[in-house]
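Before drawing any conclusions, I looked closely at one protein's amino acid sequence and its backbone structure tokens, quoted below without any editing.
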Amino acid sequence: MIAEAGLAALWIAAALAALQFILATMGIARGDPDVLRAVRPVAVVQGLIVALALALLIWVFVATDLSVKLVADNSHSAKPLIYKIAGAWGNHEGSMLLWVTILGLAGGAVALLERQLAEKTLVATLGSQALIALGFYAFLLFSSNPFARLSPAPADGNGLNPLLQDPGLAFHPPTLYIGYVGISVAFSFAVGAMVMRDVGPAFARAMRPWVLGAWIFLTLGITAGSYWAYYELGWGGWWFWDPVENASLMPWLAATALLHSVTVLATRDGLRAWTIMLAVVAFSMSMIGTFLVRSGILTSVHAFAVDPERGAFILALLAIYIGGALLLFATRVSTIREGQGFEFVSREGALVANNLLLSVILGVVLIGTLYPIFAAGVFGLQVSIGPPFFNKAAGPVALALVAIMAAGPLMRWRRDDGSAVLNRMLVPIVVTGVAVAGLVVFAGDAGVLPILGLALAVGLAVASVAPLWKRNLRRTPLFTYGMVLSHLGIAVSLAGMASETAFTQQTLVAAKIGEPQHVGPYTVTLQSIRPILGPNWSALEAELKVERGGSAFVLTPQSRYFANPVTTTNESSIATVFDGQLYTVLGQQDEAGRWQLRLWWKPFVTLIWAGGAMVAIGGVLSLIGRLLRERRTVARREEAFA
């Protein structure tokens, strides 16, 4: 009965979403205050009911109820508990239920917490959120029912994809989905503001925490997903330009541009139409990502292989939502008054340049991701677009973006003087020049882009802390510290990316027992191969003795075998030290009795993920700082009114 209760909860939540949309439409059309007030509680209850549906799905997974088709297809009685829980969303139907649950809870949070917007604008926002949810409810109920029964029930389940049997499954999808849903809330705010012709600073201040929150979770999700793929897949890389990786990167790029734009609108009343357009683009990217992952048109270790009918359903939703939003934007853009103007040399000008370059990178990634699909579907051509294209097309633009990022926070709002800006940038420029010269002398064979990347990372690090120079640090707003830390995190990540590209050393060998191998500063000796048993797998484990500068330690990469489903995976063993990582992978045995070993020395590669964490923490500080300032502002207004 648990599955039936979950399905009933899903139907009730869908009915409440429909009621929420109808009440919002009626309330706006009639101006009836009672109808307008009724929208908030309906949104809250809808979020709670759909959360109940997800909880019941997790319940049937934990209980391994094999009469539920989704459990039989994606779980197994011998699976560890953590993977039974996370496995509830490690599949197509469950991940979509997680998506719509976060969507419903977010709508409820907006209804409970938002007090800045005019009542009708808020109701229009909640109506838009309900309409988005309705499409996904219809998708679940009519095309991807997670509670469908299976008769007769099998003796045991097929198991979860072994590549997903990792703690990352419990963290990576929820953080990404919270980010995607945060973008949907920003989109709903934009639609509500357009419907009510209420685009202005108040709307931007209401939307900004949701954009910032979405950006934080997308940053965390992408960073965690990058490290998960890095250590799990055994390929030795931290980013593969996989189409589904790109599907998460594109919303992040759009959200980054939107975050800067909405800040200008909230604080300086500028970029009104551009902010609305970016909200539509950001949500479009999240919808395109959903379509790519769940349509079955991609072959990827991340993608869910599903039937084309589901892909067509999502494509129809994408066309309805994005087409409708673009149509609304086209019909209402003339009613959006132009905000405050600014000079080209100003902080607003730098933010506009930042947005344009982010949009160029977004376009490169979008074209590189979709063109192979288009060529295969329309012309029957098999086209492969990989890292060389993305690195060459997006790399120089990204470096230009870094240069503008360094200068922007040092510019004044509205208007600035070019010579004064250069004077403030003198120290970062000199540091960058010295770094370029040093790298050319000592690492001239590293390549042009890695050298420029490392040098600009050093310059950006210096420029990032420049806004704190000559300031009273105790009185500096918390969101300023957040900006500084996020920009510094970008510099740290860029340094890690450039170092990994420039200085990685790789050794691929067929090794005999006791035969030493060399990679970077390390000597690696295969000591033994032994069989071991795990909770639901068996493995061959190598014992590698690793020596460097008189110290020694042991690494144990594995080749694992899973029976349900039948799969062999390579489990890397990684040593993290102060100046990088030694990455080892065990392969197969050849006819001569030798074992394939893949060894990488990756100097400073950990800076990539450390920088990502710094960016996210900076976002959290900015969010807290903005919320505290808004609370103080409201309190002062209430005191003045009293």
